[in-house]
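Reply to dn_fold:

You asked what the input looked like. This is it:
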Amino acid sequence: MRGRAASDVALAGQRLRHKVVLALALSAVLPLLVLGYVTVTYILPEVGTADTGRLLTLELLIFFTLLAMCAGAWVIWDLGRSVARLAQMVADEARLGQFEQRKDEIGTLMQSFARMLETIEQQAAEINSFATRLDAAYKELEATNARLKETSFKDEVTGLYNRRFFSIRLEEELQRHRRFNHPVSVVLLDLDGFKAVNDELGHAVGDDTLREVAQILVKHSRGINVVARYGGDEFVVLLVETSKAGARLYADRIRQVISSYPFAHGKRITASFGIASLPDDEAATAEELVRAADEALYGAKRSGKNQVATVDSPHRVR
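and this is what came back:
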């Protein structure tokens, strides 16, 4: 890019030089020829050799006219040559210092030009440095915001999504259901006898149990589903594009895995499940759908625990 710019400058200088030569030809040489022709052909025959005073005056006029034209031509030629040399010097950076060492107007101009270029380069370097720092700060801010957002949506104990994130996603899925009538299901589960684990073995063991249940839920759930800790020993799963029948199959599979899972503390843990689905159940809002799943969950608890229940069918699923 820089070499191309230097080549363009040199070419511009050569073109300017050619234009100066053409200007000299048009403004000096041709007028001289015309003046000589007019003088010899028309003026001298009219003046005559006898009129010495008028002849001398004419000769002096012609002489000074020629002198002025030659001086003007020389000034134009020198200016064009200087500009052409300036362009060539700019194109050749190795010789740029020679211009700066000159004591005439060209040297002063080149010194000012060099200082201006130096200032521009310094400002460009500062701008690039500032832009780099700004870009780094922006990326760091984005990463920090992402971490904060992720932290605000995650449960500290299990690493699952929290109740807040689940509520946001449930509302989004309900909007999709209203537009396209796609099925959506909510599975709410509560661990049976978990309080005994906390009381007998301590909360640290209880937290480990919650993390193991969380791993089971994640392992046996599709990536598009939302697995969240709802609070205490309650978990909730948002099943996207899943009908009530599919939610029953999912919940019963999780129930069997949990009931047969060898927890580290050696105690048997079971879970009760409540299911609510759209469009099968009547629920106009997200709160109503979760409330329906919660009612089904308590129905499973009252019926003996370790069960999967819905609002209209609170019975044990085999």
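The first strand starts at residue 184 and ends at 192.
Hope that clears it up.
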